[in-house]
């Protein structure tokens, strides 16, 4: 249940407040992808282009971040620039939210962090790149992204291009099943693998149509089944990377992380940056194509959610 006290931490941008008041569809966007997922200036440019794309399709984008001790729902161009440029941005998951709000620092929200804030703001649909998951070797390290726990408990639909193969995708899907989080796939039967279209694992349900996806999600929540829904959509074929190349680079990046002793919340940003460097920047173009495509799927879903109420 969302209390007034919790909501008192939110500040809506004028555009998001107006859309909300008018009952127009809203799409939440995360900020870790801006601050920690992509380099400057491509990060800021992509964030702006993704927002514009969502607006063109008829929904209102709400990029979420922590600024000056407030949960900000919808950011100005200057604020996107600040998040994209600064090297003082905290990566904020569920654990980190109170710390960064209380000290008034700059915080970029992860999938988990953004889901919490979106739910407080009454936003049902959230677009990201890839979700966190169970890391390879988690049997030893216990490194399981807090994104998965959040999907289990917070009722927001998360549109993504699956999960990166830096993770153990099979175990990630097992974990989601255990926690009752449905994984929908659109455009194909299998769960996507971010840089490549096919993870080799079937998603739970294939629903290509936004209205069908919306009905599924609405039914889950109507029944009081608290928690998120994953909507996976593959990278457009023209932008996908070759499987063998990604496999080799992923192994290399994982070896580098082990050699350098990277742990905790630094693991995922390290692996993303390493893969980007190893591809000579080509993975960045794929990453951008993915987020834009996800934004289209998410905007259509947000509109469909509004149309079936
Ligand atoms: N996976 C990606 N790109 C990303 C992330 C994950 O392909 O930018 C970010 C998201 O913000 C995600 C977070 O929520 O990393 C997961 O971090 P961790 O594995 O530390 O939970
Ligand atoms: Mn982790």
TrEMBL record:
Per its record, the protein catalyses: D-ribose 5-phosphate + uracil = psi-UMP + H2O
- Which SUPFAM superfamilies has this protein been placed in? Indigoidine synthase A-like
Among the record's GO biological process terms, what is one? nucleobase catabolic process
Any one Gene Ontology molecular-function term assigned to this protein's record: pseudouridylate synthase activity
Q: Where is the active site?
A: 30 (proton donor), 164 (nucleophile)
InterPro entries per the UniProt record, alphabetical: Indigdn_synthA-like, PsuG
Needed co-factor(s)? Mn(2+)
Q: Which UniProt keywords apply?
A: Glycosidase, Hydrolase, Lyase, Manganese, Metal-binding
EC number from the UniProt entry: 4.2.1.70
Cellular component, GO, one term = cytoplasm
Cofactor binding note from Swiss-Prot or TrEMBL: Binds 1 Mn(2+) ion per subunit.
What is an example of a Pfam family matching this protein? Indigoidine_A
PANTHER family linked: CARBOHYDRATE KINASE PFKB DOMAIN-CONTAINING PROTEIN, ZGC:136858
Protein purpose: Catalyzes the reversible cleavage of pseudouridine 5'-phosphate (PsiMP) to ribose 5-phosphate and uracil. Functions biologically in the cleavage direction, as part of a pseudouridine degradation pathway.
Indicate the quaternary assembly. Answer: Homotrimer.
Q: Which family does it belong to?
A: Belongs to the pseudouridine-5'-phosphate glycosidase family.
| Name the record gives this protein | Pseudouridine-5'-phosphate glycosidase
């Amino acid at each position: 249940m969302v209390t007034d006290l919790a909501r008192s931490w939110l500040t809506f941008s004028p555009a998001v407040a107006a859309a909300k008041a008018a009952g127009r569809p809203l799409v939440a966007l995360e900020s870790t992808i801006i601050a920690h997922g992509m380099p400057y200036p491509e990060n800021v440019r992509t964030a702006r282009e993704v927002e514009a794309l969502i607006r063109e399709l008829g929904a209102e984008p709400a990029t979420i971040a922590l600024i000056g001790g407030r949960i900000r729902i919808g950011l100005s161009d200057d604020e996107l620039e600040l998040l994209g440029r600064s090297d003082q941005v905290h990566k904020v998951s569920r654990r980190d939210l109170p710390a960064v709000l209380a000290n008034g620092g700059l915080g970029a929200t992860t999938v988990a962090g953004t889901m919490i804030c979106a739910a407080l703001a009454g936003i049902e649909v959230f677009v990201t790149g890839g979700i966190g998951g169970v890391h390879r070797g988690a049997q030893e390290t216990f490194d399981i992204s807090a994104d998965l726990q959040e999907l289990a408990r917070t009722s927001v639909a998360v549109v993504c291009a699956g999960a990166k193969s830096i993770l153990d995708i099979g175990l990630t899907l097992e974990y989601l099943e255990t926690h009752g989080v449905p994984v929908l796939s659109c455009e194909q039967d299998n769960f996507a693998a971010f840089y490549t279209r096919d993870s080799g694992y079937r998603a739970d349900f294939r629903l290509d149509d936004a209205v069908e996806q919306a009905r599924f999600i609405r039914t889950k929540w109507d029944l009081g089944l608290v928690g998120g829904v994953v909507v996976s959509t593959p990278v457009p074929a023209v932008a996908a990377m070759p499987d063998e190349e990604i496999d080799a680079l992923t192994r290399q990046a994982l070896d580098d992380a082990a050699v350098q002793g990277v742990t905790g919340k630094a693991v995922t940003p390290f692996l993303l940056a390493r893969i980007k460097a190893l591809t000579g920047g080509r993975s960045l173009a794929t990453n951008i194509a993915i987020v834009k495509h996800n934004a289209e799927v998410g905007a259509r879903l947000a509109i469909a959610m509004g149309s079936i109420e």
